[in-house]
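Practice set, problem 2.
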Amino acid sequence: MGMRKNLAALAATAALVGGGAAVAPAASAASGGTAPACITRMVDGTPDGFRVYLSNDCGKTMRVKVIVDSGGDSPCFTMSAGSDRSWYYSGIFGRYGRTVTC
């Protein structure tokens, strides 16, 4: 098996077994792919929802958006290299899904 096939098989196995923070779910067809690891994400619960802290350590401008499961997503944020920002979600049903490119 080639290197790509090995990596694909490993990723598929990890998705089936782990499902933790290291394996991000696939993005919906309406959005871009999962944001790269150089976009740091930290999620903190708040009394009425959650806050997502994003940091762009990619070395170039990135456009990212927060996907909320069972709630409204964030707008698409343009983040210059080295920038950071926080986005707050207020709602009782929504929960952090993932961060994607847009």
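Problem 2, part (b): a different protein.
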Amino acid sequence: MTVALETVLARAGLKVTAHEFLTLVEDAAKRLTPAQADPGAHFDESERAALTETGLDLSPLGEEETDPRARSVAEQTVLRDTALSVGQAAERVGVDGSRIRHRVASRRLIGWKDRGGWRLPAWQFTDDDVLPGLETVLAAMPSDQPALVLANFMTTPQEDLELGDRPVSPREWLMAYGDPRRVAELASVIGTPA
């Protein structure tokens, strides 16, 4: 399995050994809510009935079903592994590390505190700078959303953003110098009910 995993990691461009990646996966899985053998156990009988009536399936996972947490664990692991340190971000942008920390503090970049310091999601950067229009987008993003939610939004094609005849992700849109206000408008409703 190690050789196959190393091949997948290399094809994905992740600079991490199979052992390091599996350690990241284990760490991410531990931080998630433990698997619930009976999802309905959190609710009383009337709540279970109301939720079931609306179409929610509160039955436990079957033996053949994949744990839905697996995708989140994998995504969180990749987000964490590809994130830049303050030093890496500073080098990429061509500024001092204190400037990067100042941008994080003023929410002109987003990041999280991790073992060893701040980590900044790579989607915010080009090869040599910050993503064009990023400040406009970050100003509109709800500050209560986790980094993974924001990363998924920024890297998933949106029907309201088209280049040519295909929907593109907000990151692709900004890389093509599309109007950041369009992305900001979409970003402002992240985490709100549809």
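Answer key, part (b): The mean pLDDT is 87. The chain has three domains: 1-33+68-81, 83-120, 131-194.
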